Amino acid sequence: MKNLIQRAITGVLFVGAIVGSILLGKIAFASLFFWVTVLTQWELYTLINTKGNAQINRQFATLASAFLYLSTLLWNQFSAQIGIICLAVYVLFCFGIVIYELFRKDGNSLHNWAYFFLGQIYVVVPFSMLNILNHSFEPEFLLALFVLIWTYDSGAYLFGVTLGKHRLFERISPKKSWEGAIGGFLAACVAALIFAHFFSSLPVFGWIGFAALVVVFGTFGDLAESLLKRTFNIKDSGNILPGHGGMLDRFDSLLFATPVILIYLAILIGESCFI
């Protein structure tokens, strides 16, 4: 019961912070996810150093991540010139990481390079795309992305607990079932229909397609993080969110769904939205 109350309080604060930042505007959301990016990246590199047969300079690598995030944010929403400067600093950090390994007497240099760039692609790029999504399209799409992920997760849990018999990917995540996935998809479709009722920025089938992509690629994001944890032989990626684990545990679905949704909207609404 204590753990359930803890999870509920953390969940309410978590949802409130994200929804509140979206409603407050682009700067509030970008500021929140700057810290989300930094904390998630620090968590990932900590895991890698502990379990991944590598030794990355976490301070240096996380600072590089911050500059990559800021470069896309500034370029897209404020000043292209300042964005280019931040991007140039980020490139220098990347060169610094590579050169640093040349001077280290460490047999895992290739692992260190690979894990460093994996972190940039896996974490920073999707989080940076959230700001592009927020800037280039109507705010309901960003809100829908989060709401549909939460709705799918909740539906998949409820249907999986009550009806789940056939495992989805037993080798990677033994608790996930096809029944849960189908139930989560139906719940997400209902949420998409609600968005279609209140927002005409997409037709009904456009919103259903939105939900389907979130479900499919969000599930793959969840499974990818489960594979990462299974490889490192851990239950949670961290403990920063009481009752919910780490940052990667909470944002795994978002990391795969965001790029796909951004492309989907660009195709459906038009790439001129990026200008």
From TrEMBL:
Catalysed conversion reaction: a 1,2-diacyl-sn-glycero-3-phosphate + CTP + H(+) = a CDP-1,2-diacyl-sn-glycerol + diphosphate
Ranges annotated as spanning the membrane: 12-36, 78-100, 112-129, 141-159, 180-199, 205-224, 253-270
Domain of life according to the entry: Bacteria
Keyword line: Cell membrane, Lipid biosynthesis, Lipid metabolism, Membrane, Nucleotidyltransferase, Phospholipid biosynthesis, Phospholipid metabolism, Transferase, Transmembrane, Transmembrane helix
Pathway: Lipid metabolism; Phospholipid metabolism; CDP-diacylglycerol biosynthesis; CDP-diacylglycerol from sn-glycerol 3-phosphate: step 3/3
Gene Ontology terms, MF aspect: phosphatidate cytidylyltransferase activity
Membrane topology value: Multi-pass membrane protein
Enzyme class: transferase
Pfam families for the chain: CTP_transf_1
Subcellular location: Cell membrane
GO BP field: CDP-diacylglycerol biosynthetic process
Predominant location category: membrane
Documented EC number(s): 2.7.7.41
GO cellular component, one term: plasma membrane
Family according to the record: Belongs to the CDS family.
Protein's name in the database: Phosphatidate cytidylyltransferase
Organism: Paludibacter jiangxiensis
